[in-house]
Write a structure and sequence with these properties.
With 114 residues, the chain is mainly beta. It has one domain: Immunoglobulin-like (Sandwich). The chain is built from 1 helix and 8 strands; from the N terminus they run H-E-E-E-E-E-E-E-E. The strands form 2 sheets. It has a 5-stranded antiparallel sheet with strand order 2-3-8-5-6, with no helix packed on it. Strands 1-4-7 form a 3-stranded antiparallel sheet, with no helix packed on it. 18% of the residues are buried.
Amino acid sequence: MLIFEAAHRTVCACAALASSPFSCRRRQQVSFGGKGNATATPIRTLRKSLASGADVLLAVNVDRGSITAQFDIHDLAADSIAAMFEDGRSVAVANSSFTDFFESMDVHVCRLKA
């Protein structure tokens, strides 16, 4: 039953993302380091603004190798960000920057602003 409840919450949250406009004006820079990456840019990102005023960053490791990525987001003014759909995990932010680890083909969804 818990799996179905978690799946339902994920689907409902993603539905809000699908109807939100893309944010082309806001910039983020991603640098990465890891082993076994098949491409020069293994982390792909998409940033969206929700109607609630929150921004969400979707980040995908498109390679089969695990990797650590550093995200530099110039307008991020927070001490931490929430990793959505990951049981309350948060990531520390320092100087508008944070680092996150991705397994092979991993997807992370992070709420940047509340």
